[in-house]
Structures are given as structure tokens and as C-alpha cells.
Specification:
- Helices cover about 20% and strands about 35% of the residues.
- The longest helix has 15 residues.
- By secondary structure, the protein is an alpha+beta fold.
């Protein structure tokens, strides 16, 4: 699943189990979009998370921290 974010950022998630949103849906920052899935020879559910700006992949750890800060600020 690919989510288009503001500023030409894209979040990519794979593999997913059950998807809870449809293409073209708007989603909020804390909305559950899917459940994690399982692929091929893996022995447990897992998630591959990628962040891309245009065609360049970014470090998702920094992106996650940024999102954490946004959510924390919204909840104050």
C-alpha cells in the first residue's frame, strides 16, 4: 500500500493482511489503515515500512520520530 503525503512524500507498507481503507480515501495521522501480513517463507507477521520523497528513499526512523512529535503536539 502506498499513501501519498503532503510535500511529495510517500509512505509504503508491505506485506499487509486486511486493508481497512480504499484507494483515494483520505486518512488521518493516527488512523489504522491495515493489519500486518505474512509473505512467502516468513514465520510470523511483519511489516516493511518505507518513506520516499519523489524518487529518493529516506530513513524511516527519522520519519517516525517526526510523526511522533506531530501526534504528541496535537494531543497537548
Amino acid at each position: 500500500m502506498k499513501i501519498d503525503n503532503a510535500g511529495c512524500f510517500h509512505s509504503l507498507y508491505d506485506p499487509l493482511g486486511k486493508t481497512k481503507v480504499n484507494a483515494e480515501d483520505s486518512v488521518s495521522i493516527n488512523q489504522r489503515i491495515a493489519s500486518v501480513g505474512n509473505t512467502g517463507g516468513s514465520t510470523n507477521s511483519h511489516l516493511h515500512y518505507k518513506v520516499r520523497k519523489v524518487k529518493r528513499y529516506l530513513n524511516p526512523q527519522k520519519w517516525c520520530y517526526c510523526l511522533f512529535e506531530i501526534i504528541t503536539t496535537k494531543n497537548k
